[in-house]
């Protein structure tokens, strides 16, 4: 038995909420109409936004200290996709799934592709893994991978990435994300310039094999697992590498990969201006790469990031299409609930950013009126757009209240019965 959330169940769950939603929606429509904004346009935008779900995010994640598995954990990539389908049925804007190799390596790619398609899903980005040694691996990544001093280790890492591209083609993916943990723990341990040169030389080999129509995402990270220096440590280094590689290489911004208090919205504006913003790994953090739920700690920062993105979207139109992907570790919540609420927070920030009166903002910026410039952003950020988010899901066949509907379905307890707990195989981060 493989319990699945059905459109019928979601429709039934919505029925009692529709009337109140229409009332709230009409009221909000009147409020923003006074600002010259058509609520229907915002609802359309909310329905068109796409947020990709990380396969490694539907299982419980852990820290270096411990992992406390929940019940009904997915035991393989097929069960992960089942969970992704449940999220998609409730949210309707998450058909894209990011895979991580070898965690999700299928025996028969065609079978996995068909399994995803049958659930309305598709594989968007592949993710390579040269930050762990796999059983039977010839050479260790202890001292690095694509930037390792030993050309044999670099070659092994390059071949793993080429394998990801080949597998991704069979799965219908259109992007490949490379994050490496390469770096050093002690001053003097690594020659910074030579390490970066070795990395770029390796990336050129991978880029040369990039299939037509694909994008290559370079993901920077300040620290961890290396704690003194990291080869791809910041957006500037990532940008330089993407530019060196060519037009199909881009920088990917994982929100948790920056030093505390870095102005990430300005980093985003730089990468937009330089034409190298490939996409995001959305999450939130209080201290380090905490991989907490998007919008859970710094919702205003998430709004300010989308303020930059919407500004560019309005300028560039459909040509502006960064990949919006989640990358989180759900250690103490039901992972599906965290992915659902994180997706809601991303759509909320996007819709609120479309509420910004950009003509007024430009006037206040040009006339150096900082207070009114901030107030213009705050008016949008403090507007409760929940009725728009709910109406967008409802019109797309999703849930008006996804968490309540998910809990009412008993999905988790059903999966607990179907998926007897077993000694935990890494379904993700640890
Ligand atoms: C590294 C990272 C990267 C993934 C991993 C799961 O911290 O953000 O994107 O490969 O998490
Ligand atoms: Mn990431």
Q: Describe it for me?
A:
Strand 1 (53-54), helix 4 (77-91) and strand 2 (96-100) form a beta-alpha-beta unit. The longest helix has 21 residues, at 151-171. Helix 3 (39-48) packs across helix 11 (335-353), helix 9 (264-273) packs parallel to helix 10 and helix 10 crosses helix 11. The strands form 2 sheets. An 8-stranded parallel β-sheet has the order 1-2-3-4-6-8-9-10. A two-stranded antiparallel ribbon has the order 5-7. It contains 16 helices and 10 strands. The chain has helices spanning 7-15, 18-33, 39-48, 77-91, 109-117, 151-171, 192-207, 235-245, 264-273, 299-316, 335-353, 358-366, 370-381, 386-395, 402-409, 411-418; strands spanning 53-54, 96-100, 122-127, 175-178, 183-184, 215-219, 229-230, 249-254, 277-282, 323-326. The mean pLDDT is 97. By secondary structure, it is of the alpha/beta class. The radius of gyration is 22 Å and the shape is globular. Bound molecules: 6-deoxy-beta-L-fructofuranose and manganese (II) ion. Residues 56, 127, 179, 219, 221, 254, 281, 289, 327, 429 line the site of 6-deoxy-beta-L-fructofuranose.
């Amino acid at each position: 038995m493989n319990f699945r959330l059905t459109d019928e169940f979601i429709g039934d769950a919505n029925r009692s909420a529709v009337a109140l939603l229409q009332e709230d929606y009409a009221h909000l429509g009147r409020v923003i109409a006074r600002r010259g904004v058509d609520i229907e346009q915002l609802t359309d935008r909310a329905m068109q936004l796409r947020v990709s779900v990380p396969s490694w995010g539907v299982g419980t994640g852990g820290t270096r200290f411990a992992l406390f598995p929940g019940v009904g954990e997915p035991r393989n990539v097929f069960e992960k996709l089942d969970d992704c389908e449940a999220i998609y049925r409730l949210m309707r804007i998450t058909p894209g799934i990011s895979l991580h190799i070898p965690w999700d390596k299928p025996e028969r790619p065609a079978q996995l592709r068909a399994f995803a398609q049958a659930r309305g899903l598709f594989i968007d980005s592949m993710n390579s893994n040269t930050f762990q040694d796999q059983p039977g691996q010839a050479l260790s990544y202890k001292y690095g991978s694509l930037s390792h001093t030993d050309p044999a280790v670099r070659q092994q890492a390059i071949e793993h990435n080429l394998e990801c591209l080949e597998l991704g083609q069979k799965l219908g993916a259109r992007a490949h994300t490379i994050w490496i943990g390469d770096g050093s723990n002690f001053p003097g341990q690594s020659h910074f310039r030579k390490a970066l040169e070795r990395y770029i030389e390796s990336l050129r080999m991978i880029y040369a094999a990039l299939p037509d129509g694909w994008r290559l995402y370079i993901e920077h990270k300040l620290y961890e697992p290396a704690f003194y220096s990291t080869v791809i440590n910041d957006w500037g280094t990532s940008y330089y590498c993407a530019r060196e590689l060519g037009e199909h290489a881009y920088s990917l911004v994982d929100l948790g990969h920056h030093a505390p208090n870095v102005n990430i919205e300005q980093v985003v504006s730089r990468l937009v201006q330089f034409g190298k913003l490939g996409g995001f790994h959305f999450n939130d953090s209080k201290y380090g790469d905490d991989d907490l739920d998007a919008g859970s700690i710094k919702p205003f920062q998430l709004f300010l990031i989308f303020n930059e993105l919407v500004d560019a979207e309005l300028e560039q139109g459909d040509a502006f299409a960064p990949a919006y992907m989640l990358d989180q570790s759900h250690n103490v919540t039901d992972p599906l609930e965290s992915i659902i609420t994180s997706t809601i927070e991303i759509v909320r920030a996007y819709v609120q950013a479309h509420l910004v009166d950009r003509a007024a903002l430009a006037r206040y910026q040009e006339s150096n009126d900082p207070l009114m410039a901030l107030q213009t952003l705050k008016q949008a950020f403090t507007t409760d757009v929940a009725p728009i988010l709910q109406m967008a899901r409802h019109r797309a066949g999703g849930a008006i209240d996804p968490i309540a509907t998910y809990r009412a379905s008993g999905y988790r307890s059903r999966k607990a019965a179907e998926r007897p707990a077993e000694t935990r195989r890494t379904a993700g981060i640890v």
